[in-house]
Write a structure and sequence with these properties.
By secondary structure, this protein is an alpha+beta fold. It is built from three helices and six strands.
């Protein structure tokens, strides 16, 4: 029985690694009218892994996952050029009538 409990803990740990934090911007907030929630995810995360992580952690049904990679911008800091890191975002569409409250913790 202890082996099953340990397996569930390990399963939850990688799920928390995939779903880093929600994106709270004007554009992502407008998506909530269509049942969409946006999260930052690692560059290596795949759509099936994102789907299972969202369904397990938030106990909702996911109909679709769209991902995008936002390329890092070149910025200047005190005359020195620097490059921001690339970011991957996942726009998750939920089943009709389901929501995720991103204002509270998991």
């Amino acid at each position: 029985m202890a082996a099953k409990k340990k397996e569930k803990v390990e399963l939850a740990e990688w799920m928390y690694d995939i779903i880093r934090n929600p994106v709270v911007t004007e554009k992502s907030t407008n998506g909530s009218a269509f049942g969409q929630v946006t999260f930052k995810v690692p560059l290596s995360a795949s759509k099936p892994k994102i789907k299972t992580a969202i369904e397990t952690l938030f106990k909702v049904d996911v109909t679709k996952v769209n991902t995008l990679i936002q390329k890092g911008k070149t910025k200047r800091f005190k005359g020195i050029k620097a490059l921001r890191n690339d970011e991957k975002k996942a726009v998750v569409t939920l089943k009709e009538g389901q929501t995720i409250d991103v204002g509270t913790g998991v």
